[in-house]
Amino acid sequence: MNDEIEISESFADVDFPRLERSLRHPRTLLSAFLSLMTGVVTVVACIPLFSVLFMLIYRGGKRLSLSLLTETPPSAFESGGGFGNAIVGTLTMVGIAALIAVPFGILAAVFLAEFGPKSKTASAVRFCAKLLTGFPSILAGVFAYAAVVLLTGTYSAPAGGIALSILMLPIVMLTAEESIKMVPQKMKEAAIGMGATQTQVVWRVILPTAMPGMLTGVMLAVARAAGETAPLLFTALNSNYWIVQDGSLALMEPTASLAVLIFNFSGVPFESQIELAWAAALVLVLIVLVINIVGQVLSRKRVTR
To answer: Could you give the 3-state DSSP secondary structure of residue 83?
Structure first.
C-alpha cells in the first residue's frame, strides 16, 4: 500500500502536458516529414505494378474466353484461336523442373544446415548457389541445349525442364537452408534426448517444422521458372500442337509455352496475335498468382498444425 502511495506521489510531480508531442519540436517535424515521404515513396513504387496489372486486365481481359484455353494458336492471317497447348506445355516443363530442383534443393539445404554447416564443401556450395541466383537465364538455356538438345537431337519438354531447374535450384536451396536454421535448437535437443537419430530428427522434426518457409521458397522458384523465356528458346523452342498426341505424351518434341508465345506474338504486325499475347500474359500472371496462393494456404495449414 505504501509503495502505491509513493508511486502516485512521484507521478504527481510530472508535467504531463509537456510530454505531449508538439509540431514545433524539430524531432516531431522530422518524424512527420519522414513518415510522409515514406508513404509517398511507397505509393510511387506501387504505380508501375498497378499500371502493368491494369494494362494486362484491360488489354488481355478483352480476349479471355473458354476457347483460349481449349484451342491452339492461329496462323498469321487467321483470327480466333487460343493457347491451350502453351498452358499445358508451361505446366509440364515447370513440373519437370520442380521434380528436379525441389528434392535436390531440399537435400542440399539439409546438408548445409545440419550435417556439414561449417565444412569447406558447404562453403563452396553456398558460394555457387549465390552465384547461380544471379545467373543469366539465357546461359542456363545454352547449357541445357548443349547437354540435352544436342545429345537427344531434338527440342523437347525435358530439355526445357532441365534448363528451368537450374534457375530454380539455388532459390529452393538457399530458402530451405534458412528455414531449417530457424527451427529452434530446443526441439532438436528434445528429439535427440528421446533417443532419435540425426536422420530421424531431420525427417520427423526439422523438415515438418521448416516446411512453411520451404514452401515459400518453392513458390518463388516456380514463379521465376514460369515466366522465363530465353532458356526455352534454346531447349523447347515452340509448337502449335498439343503435347498430348494420340493419347500419349509427346515429351520429346518441340513444346509450346506461354512465355515463348508472348515473345513471338508481341512483335508481329497482326492485331489478332498481339491481342492473344496480352491475354496469354494475363493468364500467365493468374497461374503464378494461383500457385502462390495455394502455397501460402498450405504453409498456413502446416503452421496451425
So the answer is: coil
